[in-house]
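Quick one, probably user error.
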């Protein structure tokens, strides 16, 4: 153990019991001890709390319960656990605490109460025990807490209290850019916690979150720092919750997914925008209930349902082959908030189910093809796991037929407190009633309620004003996953939403990296272009995350998902680009490793012409002003004249699509490490690099038979992690 927590005892009754019960691994145990040591050594308040920063579904609850055990062993008498405002989460938290502290509760060493059910006649005997109060972050719960501490049981004011704010977000502090009434409500909650704090003797505050965006990047009195780094309100300290080896997060869905042939490369399935429209409301002209198994405009939701059934069948067959108990699986459809949309989606899913059962019993050709297509899709990723058995199509087909015939599928709408409460099991977790469970709902599904064995996620919430915290909480496909489950998992959303989620993942990753390096004290740079095209600092709370780009050393930016204009339309422009590129190279003052240092004005002129020659597909963007803004920022970072390294290659023969049918996204990496990207990263130290690749654009390669230029922008090594906001929320 390091010196920072040597003075702490680990053999106290509470922590010793938890440690023995849960067999905490050393990194997690040390995280708990460091957190406790800092809570003892530093003053923490609701405005400057200690922070436990974890990842979505990554064991944060386990960690703060360990901290609770240490707190009870080190002089704290009461823990007030603040939870998000749903009855389901309160029930889940109550059940979890009872399970974890079972021994202490049985021996009358600890009492656990939901504040709304706390008895009015607690005796001195009970109040002398350690206490855990679960309090929903909502005015009635906080009023009840205040009443208990200040009126009914004033002796509690003399106890040492630890506040733990679970799933901490803006609700815990006084500011959020949202509707006025929400801000008012949040200020009320913050002031109630503050009033209570004043009555207590040296309370400590710990916030637990996976979405630190609002906490670390909250403006202090809404003033922008004079420099380019935003002045942050920071927690008193930050501890990162270790991520266990079974954790699957954004790195799998958005980073590893780009590696051809990797298991992760098969997870994402694109959904067309118009299909989300179909799922908004019933429309008899667009959807014929008797043709659900063949209609083209619902192809992706049909594919998702069949993939889920086939995927669960593959897993259950594998488990049976190995003599293990067969698991139950879940699939979430989360595209709308409205109950009418949920009712329509439930009707749609039940329609699929009825037709699939009928088709399975008949063994129709249409049914055989649906199962075959899904099997072919899923088995690609199953085969990437060497030690996992690969069932034959015939075995899976019979498994699917049996599952449908025996009604192994059940779908449930989850969109109100009542629905969730009815669907919870004794642990407060979503009950899996049958082997294959489809949950249809809105945001109530993302409030921390545990959903086991999720292998399908159909997501379609509109990204126009995505908030970082909200989107990360929606990412229900994150969490502990066996690799064999991941192999049959699929994630369905539009290209536009996927791109936004990828940007948010990148931002979250860089923020976390900053903490791991200890560099977060310097802040993260937030920039935008003002009306006069100048780069200026911007308020991170006003960022529209759908227009956010994370810049870090040697990051590359390039347009992906496009077709060229027709040859007759772009020929003249391509010739102009040829001339500009040649002129820029001839007039360059410095050359290095085949790269030419040119003024940023020349690079922007080239990019403007390239932009005219490319036609972006739906869901893919090439915002010229974003590229220009980032180029301006990066090239001026050297504090001298604005320059950029130019690298060019001609006669390229790249195909429009990769072998897996996805758009080509690596024109700069031919030859395994000997391509232009390697050279660009070598020269891009002080200045950024612009790689210009002249493609032949042949028809047999999927293009229109017109040569074109493909640009790749590479950030220099000497740049701070930067968030560029192309658009911000208007006041």
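Nope, works fine. Designed sequence:
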């Amino acid at each position: 153990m390091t010196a920072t927590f040597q003075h702490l005892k680990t053999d106290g009754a509470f922590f010793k019991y938890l440690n023995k019960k849960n067999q905490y691994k050393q990194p997690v145990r040390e995280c708990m001890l460091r957190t406790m040591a800092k809570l003892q050594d530093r003053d923490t308040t609701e405005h400057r709390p200690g922070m436990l920063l974890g990842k979505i579904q990554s064991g944060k609850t386990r960690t703060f319960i360990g901290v609770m055990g240490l707190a009870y062993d080190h002089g704290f008498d009461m823990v007030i656990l603040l939870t998000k405002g749903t009855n389901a989460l309160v029930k889940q938290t109550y059940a979890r605490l009872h399970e974890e502290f079972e021994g202490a509760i049985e021996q009358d060493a600890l009492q656990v109460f939901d504040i709304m059910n706390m008895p009015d006649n607690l005796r001195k005997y009970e109040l002398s025990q350690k206490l855990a109060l679960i309090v929903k972050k909502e005015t009635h719960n906080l009023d009840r807490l205040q009443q208990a501490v200040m009126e009914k049981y004033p002796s509690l004011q003399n106890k040492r209290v630890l506040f733990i704010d679970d799933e901490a977000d803006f609700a815990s502090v006084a500011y959020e850019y949202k509707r006025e009434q929400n801000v008012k409500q949040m200020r009320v909650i913050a002031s109630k916690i503050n009033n209570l704090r004043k009555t207590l003797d040296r309370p400590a505050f710990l916030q637990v979150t996976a979405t630190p965006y609002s906490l670390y990047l909250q403006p202090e009195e809404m003033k922008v720092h004079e420099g380019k780094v935003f002045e942050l309100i920071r927690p008193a300290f930050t501890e990162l919750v270790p991520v266990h080896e079974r954790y699957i997060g954004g790195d799998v869905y958005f980073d590893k997914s780009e590696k051809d042939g990797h298991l992760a490369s098969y997870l994402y399935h694109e959904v067309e925008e118009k299909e989300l429209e179909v799922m908004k409301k019933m429309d008899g002209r667009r959807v014929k209930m008797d043709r659900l198994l063949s209609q083209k405009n619902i192809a992706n939701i049909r594919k998702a349902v069949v993939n889920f059934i086939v995927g669960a069948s593959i897993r259950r067959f594998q488990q049976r082959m190995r003599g293990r108990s067969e698991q139950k699986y879940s699939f979430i459809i989360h595209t709308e908030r409205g109950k009418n949309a949920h009712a329509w989606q439930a009707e749609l899913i039940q329609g699929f189910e009825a037709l699939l059962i009928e088709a399975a019993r008949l063994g129709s050709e249409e049914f055989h093809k649906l199962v075959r297509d899904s099997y072919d899709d899923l088995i690609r990723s199953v085969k990437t796991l060497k030690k996992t058995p690969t069932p034959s199509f015939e075995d899976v087909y019979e498994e699917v037929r049996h599952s449908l015939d025996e009604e192994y599928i059940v779908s449930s709408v989850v969109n109100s407190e009542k629905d969730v409460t009815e669907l919870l099991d004794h642990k407060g977790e979503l009950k899996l009633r049958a082997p294959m469970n489809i949950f249809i709902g809105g945001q109530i599904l993302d409030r921390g309620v545990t959903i086991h064995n999720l292998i399908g996620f159909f997501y379609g919430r509109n990204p126009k004003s995505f908030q970082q915290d909200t989107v990360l909480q929606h990412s229900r496909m994150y969490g502990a996953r066996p690799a064999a489950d991941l192999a049959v998992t699929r994630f369905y959303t539009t290209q536009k939403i996927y791109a936004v989620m990828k940007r948010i993942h990148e931002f979250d990753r860089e923020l976390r990296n900053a903490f791991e390096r200890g560099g977060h004290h310097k802040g993260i740079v937030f920039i935008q272009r003002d009306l006069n095209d100048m780069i200026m600092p911007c308020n991170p709370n006003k960022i529209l995350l759908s227009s956010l780009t994370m810049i870090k050393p040697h990051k590359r930016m390039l347009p992906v998902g496009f077709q060229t204009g027709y040859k007759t339309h772009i020929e003249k422009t391509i010739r102009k680009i040829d001339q500009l590129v040649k002129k820029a190279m001839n007039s360059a003052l410095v050359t290095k490793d085949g790269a030419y240092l040119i003024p940023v004005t020349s690079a922007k002129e080239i990019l403007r012409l390239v932009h005219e020659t490319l036609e972006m597909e739906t869901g893919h963007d090439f915002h010229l002003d974003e590229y220009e803004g980032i180029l301006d920022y990066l090239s001026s970072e050297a504090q001298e004249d604005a320059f950029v390294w130019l690298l060019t290659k001609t006669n390229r023969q790249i195909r429009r699509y990769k072998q897996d049918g996805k758009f080509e996204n690596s024109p700069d990496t031919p030859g395994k490490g000997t391509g232009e990207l390697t050279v660009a990263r070598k020269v891009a130290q002080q200045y950024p690099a612009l790689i210009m690749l002249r493609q032949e654009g042949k028809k047999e390669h999927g293009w229109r038979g017109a040569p074109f230029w493909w640009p790749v922008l590479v950030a220099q090594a000497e740049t701070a992690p930067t968030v560029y906001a192309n658009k911000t929320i208007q006041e």
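The chain has three domains: 13-241, 247-502, 524-725.
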